[in-house]
Design goal:
By secondary structure, the protein is mainly α. The chain has three helices and no strands. α1 packs across α2 and α2 crosses α3. It is elongated and about 40 Å long.
C-alpha cells in the first residue's frame, strides 16, 4: 500500500495501524537525520517521536483527495 493510501485510511477510517505502518517505514530515516543533527541518542529519539506526533496532528489538515 502506498503512503497516500495509508494516510487516506487514517483520515477516513481512523485506522491507527495504517499510521503505524508509515512510522515503521520512515522511523529509521527520521532517527538517522535527527541523530546527525543533535548528536545524542536520547535527544534524537525525542526528536523522532515529536516528528511523528506532529505529522499525525497535521494529517487532519489535509483533504483525503489531495494526498
Amino acid at each position: 500500500m502506498t503512503d497516500r493510501e495509508l494516510a487516506n485510511k487514517v483520515l477516513r477510517d481512523g485506522h491507527q495501524q495504517s499510521f503505524a505502518e508509515i512510522v515503521s517505514r520512515y522511523s529509521g530515516m527520521v532517527f538517522s537525520k535527527a541523530i546527525a543533527i543533535v548528536r545524542r541518542e536520547d535527544l534524537a529519539k525525542d526528536v523522532a517521536q515529536q516528528t511523528f506526533i506532529r505529522a499525525y496532528e497535521r494529517l487532519s489538515y489535509r483533504r483525503t483527495d489531495s494526498l
